[in-house]
Amino acid sequence: MPEPLPDPHKRPRQARSVATFEAILEAAARILESLGFARFNTNDVAELAGVSIGSLYQYFPSKNALIVELIRRERTKLSNRIVEAIQQHDASDLKEKLKLVIHAAVQHQLSRPQLARTLEFASELIGRDIEESELQDELETIVSDLFVRSGISHAQTAAQDVIALSKGMINAAGIAGESDLNDLQQRVEKAVFGYLDLT
């Protein structure tokens, strides 16, 4: 059964605290990109962020809490990009909408590929959690609703399959170190359109 993720000690409200919180997160992201998960430590993060280790621990009680917040941040970015892609082009046909959704997912993975790979690895170690399940359910609902409106039969199953297919290909490309966004986009489109029998 998925577990809830640990929260930071406190969520900042004042502008200065928010800036510190974000600086710590960005420093953590850069260190994960350059050193990887195994050599990641909070002292390096604090130094790069320009804060004391005490200040870092005010927000994040452990390095896992810091990584979890980064995973959360990246998931939220991806979810927002996909929702925006669908909502901003409401009049587009299904193929155009799917192209935009695939583009959002591919761009997210390849914009910071090393970070995406490292967080994927860290997420496997930390374990599947409630938020990941909730995001999966949210994406399935969004895509399933899109399929229902477009007359795709067995919309829920089709949504699950299309998400699994896309996620598998995009994650595999990230792990393999691919950097050609257009090539990956075209391959995922070909697989998804073939599955849905969209010509």
Structure keywords:
199 residues; mainly alpha; Tetracycline Repressor, domain 2; 9 helices
CATH topology: Tetracycline Repressor, domain 2
Radius of gyration from the alpha-carbon trace, in angstroms: 18 Å
CA distance, first residue to last residue: 40 Å
Shape, principal axes of CA atoms:
elongated
CATH level-1 class = Mainly Alpha
What is the tally of helical segments? 9
Corresponding CATH architecture: Orthogonal Bundle
How many domains would you count in the coordinates?
Answer: 1
The biggest sheet amounts to:
none
Mean pLDDT: 86
Question: SSE order in H/E notation?
Answer: HHHHHHHHH
Judged by helices, strands and strand pairing, the structural class is mainly alpha
Number of strands: 0
| Uncertain regions spanning at least 5 consecutive residues | none
Helical content (DSSP H or I, runs of 4+): over 70%
CATH superfamily: Tetracycline Repressor, domain 2
Strand content: under 5%
Describe the structure.
This protein has 199 residues and is an all-alpha fold. It has a single domain, classed as Tetracycline Repressor, domain 2, CATH 1.10.357. Helices cover 75% and strands 0% of the residues. The protein contains nine helices and no strands. The termini are far apart. 24% of the residues are buried. The model has no long low-confidence stretch (mean pLDDT 86).
Quick structural summary:
The chain is mainly alpha-helical. The protein has nine helices and no strands.
Question: Helices and strands in order, then pairings?
Answer:
Layout: H1 15-35, H2 42-49, H3 53-59, H4 63-87, H5 94-111, H6 113-126, H7 130-149, H8 155-175, H9 181-196
Helix pairs in contact: 1-2, 1-6, 4-5, 4-6, 4-7, 5-6, 5-8, 5-9, 7-8, 8-9
